[in-house]
C-alpha cells in the first residue's frame, strides 16, 4: 500500500511539473512575425562562398540579412584601416556577391559597416584634441561614403551610418547630422544608426534617420535558465521605455542586433558572459527561451519594425571549432532554429 501511495505521489508530482513547465514555457506563437523584418546578421566568410547560405535562411523564414564590413582602428588612435586586412566577404567583391545571392532568394539588405579593435570597444573611442577628432571624422567619412555609393548602386534597402559609437555620437552630434545629410544626397534608401542598448535614449539625431536602431543586449535576469514567461515579464520595463521613445521621436524601433549565446544566464550581461564563455554551462534551451520571449514580446508591437539576430556563419567550420560554435550566438543546428522557423514563417 505504501509503495502504491508513493507511486501515485510521484505521478502527481510529475504531471504537476509538466503542467508548470508548459505554462511557463508556452508554445511558440507561430507566424506572428510574418510582417516584420525577420533579419539575420551574416558573418562575412574569409574566402569565396563554398556553399550558398541564402536558401537555408529563406527556409527558416528570414526575409532580411545584414552585412557587416568591418574596418579596424587602434586604441585611442584616429586612423581607420579598411584595406588589406579584410576577409573576402568584407571587401567590395564579397559584398557584391553576398547581395547577389540574397537577391536570388528575395531577401532585403541592411548594409552595416562597423569599426573594431581587439583592445577597445568602439563606444569608448574619443579624443582630447580637436585635430584628432578632425582626422578621425575624415577617415570615417572616407570609409563610409564608398559603402554608401555601393549600397545605392546595388539597390540596398537600408544603410547603417554607424554602430555603437557611443562617445562619438554623444560628443559630436553635429558631425553625424552633416554626414547623414551628405549620405542623403547619394543614397535613396532608408537610414538607421545602431545605438547600444544603454545609450539609445541619449542620441539626439534620430529625427534625421528613418529608424531608431538599438543593439538590444538588454540585461533581463541573472537566472540560469529562465522560463519564457519569466523573460517576458522581465522585458516589460524596457517595452514601456522603448514605446515612449518611439512616441517622442515618431520613428519605428528596429533592433539592429539582438541575440543570445547558448549558455546558462545568456539573458543577463552578455558582455561579461562572453569573457567566460569557455567556463559557462551549455544550454540550448536557455537560448531558445530567450529568443522566443524577445520575438513574441515585441512581435505584437506595431511600433517595432523587427530586428537582426546576431549571428549566422556562412562557412562555420572555417571560423569556429565545434566546441566554440556550441557556445556561440549562432542558432545554427540548435533548438533556437526551430523557434525562429515557427515564429517567422507564415
UniProtKB/TrEMBL annotation:
It comes from the Bacteria. SUPFAM superfamilies: (Trans)glycosidases. This is Glycoside hydrolase. InterPro entries: GH, GH113. Gene3D superfamilies: Glycosidases. PROSITE patterns: PROKAR_LIPOPROTEIN (PS51257).
